[in-house]
Amino acid sequence: MKGLSFPSGFVWGAATAAYQIEGAWNEEGKGESIWDRFSHTRGKVLNGDTGDMACDHYHRYREDLKLLRDLNLRAYRFSTSWARILPQGGAVNSRGLDFYERLVDTLLEFEIEPYLTLYHWDLPQALQERGGWGNRDIVGQFADYATIVAKRLGDRVKNWMTLNEPWVIAFMGHRSGEHAPGLRDEKLALQVAHHLLVAHGAAVDALRANTRAARVGIVINLLPVETLHDTEQERALAEQNWQSDSAWFLDPIFRGSYPAAIWQAYGAKQPRTLPGDMAQIARQLDFWGINYYSRHVVGINGRVPGSEYTAMGWEVNAPALERMLVRLNHEYQLPPILITENGAAFADQYADDGSVQDPRRIAYLYTHLEATARAMAQGVNVRGYFVWSLLDNFEWAYGYGKRFGIVYVDYTTQKRVLKDSAKWYAQTVSENALAPLA
Ligand code: FCB
Fold it and tell me: Which uninterrupted H or E stretch holds 17?
């Protein structure tokens, strides 16, 4: 069976985020972030896990980047920690910047292209105390942070992402409270979402002003909403969910306006906007990232009969990714797309021979790459794919219980072990074609 092939130049990578892997939470001048505060608060993270040590990547980064090289990956998506660089939100901690400089230089030494995300959820706690994303001042603060990182790394980093998953930041951080800073206030969450979008646009300008030839984008998590019975009522509900979660971010960025019906329905909860905001949000992008894991099905409480579920309780459904990509391509004028995250958590364990066999993860990656290729054959401009994640890591409110890595991490010894999926992915990458399933 011949594997499905990808165009030459297709970008193959793996993704991580600072708080989930670095550890060294208070070393070399790093300030406290909202995730340090949150994970140190009893009852917020499963088993009381924290990112204090995580994968100790801060000290082991060279060994970890070697793994990328050994897996034939030529692209690496990582994030910088705002609180490592601006511990109190104001003055620069040069040792924090030094770390990211070492990281980037090592990537380039290994001929791996850096894809840098400025914000993957770890706001300096000092800024949270001034209102965080709920305070309009955050727009200028984020642009200043972008400028500082761009000035130090802009000669070497060509691919920049402003925010990771504004939906999660706004709604899980400020409406459901499952994530830092743990607030539960829908009106605030909508204001936060708006500030995130404006801050994104301001950072796009700052990055372009302080780099040469930077390619700039944003990463959005998208959850297609589908129906179980395809009734008119279910279709309407699915569409409403899509509009209030996904289009709420896509429309401002790609059309310069919020979805009108949802805006109306929010009434007194509508965010305050200033003249010029929508144009600022809708800056032309060089690319954008989609994080895709699963779909949402309306018309059922609980699981879809016959479907497979991951350790997160998320349904495995690759065709929904294909359908969503094709739909997006019809509805919006889009810049090139990167799949910036895709992957699955399973209860991986060592086998007796020391290997970690994860056939379900291989099948997951296979089918989602296949779905991506099918969408590309229908004209969707996908330029690359990053598996989430390189390493098992701190999975936010779930702590270390959920393993998303293609590389297993033994947290007691910090030993790394390639899972079978890492080997499968390396083969796929080197052939630029889907390696067959065992
Ligand atoms: C995404 C996050 C990433 C990781 C995966 C599983 O929402 O961006 O950090 O936690 O989910």
Answer: none
Q: What is the pTM of this model?
A: 0.98
Burial status of residue 396 (CB atoms within 10 A of its CB: 0-12, 13-18, 19 or more): buried
Q: Answer whether residue 1 shows pLDDT above 60.
A: no
Structure tokens at 37: 């505060």
Catalytic residues, by residue number, are 165, 341
Q: Counting beta carbons within 10 angstroms of the beta carbon of residue 354, is it exposed (0 to 12), middle (13 to 18) or buried (19 or more)?
A: exposed
What are 215's strand-pairing partners? 159
* Cα 337 → chain centroid: 14
Answer for the pair 344, 360: CB distance below 8 angstroms, yes or no.
yes
With b meaning 16 or more CB within 10 Å and e meaning fewer, what string describes 343-353?
bbbbebeeeee
Rounded CA separation 22/30 (Å) = 12
The number of the ligand 1 atom at minimal distance from the alpha carbon of 221 is: 7
Report residue 340 CA to chain centroid gap: 7
Half-sphere exposure of 411 (CA within 13 A, CB side): 21
Ligand 1 pocket, residues with Cβ under 6 angstroms: 17, 20, 164-165, 168, 221, 291, 341, 388, 395-396, 404
Q: What Cα–Cα distance (Å) separates residue 141 from each residue in 70, 86, 90, 189, 321?
A: 38, 10, 8, 19, 35
Number of residues that make up the chain: 438
Complete DSSP assignment for 103-167:
HHHHHHHTT-EEEEEEESS--BHHHHTTTGGGSTTHHHHHHHHHHHHHHHHTTT--EEEEEE-HH
Give residue limits of the domains in the chain. 11-430
Q: Which atom of ligand 1 is nearest to the CA of 343?
A: 6
Task: Report helix, strand and coil shares of the chain as percent, to nearest 5.
Answer: 45, 15, 40
- Considering the domain 11-430 in this protein, what is its CATH number? 3.20.20.80
Where does residue 256 fall: left (phi above 0), alpha (psi -120 to 50 degrees), or beta otherwise? left
Pocket probe for ligand 1: among 294, 341, 395, 403, the residue whose CB has the most ligand atoms within 8 Å is 341
Does the pLDDT value for residue 2 go beyond 70?
no
Taking only Cα atoms into account, the Rg of the chain, rounded to an integer number of angstroms, comes to 21
Q: pLDDT per residue over 19-31, tens digit each?
A: 999 999 999 999 9
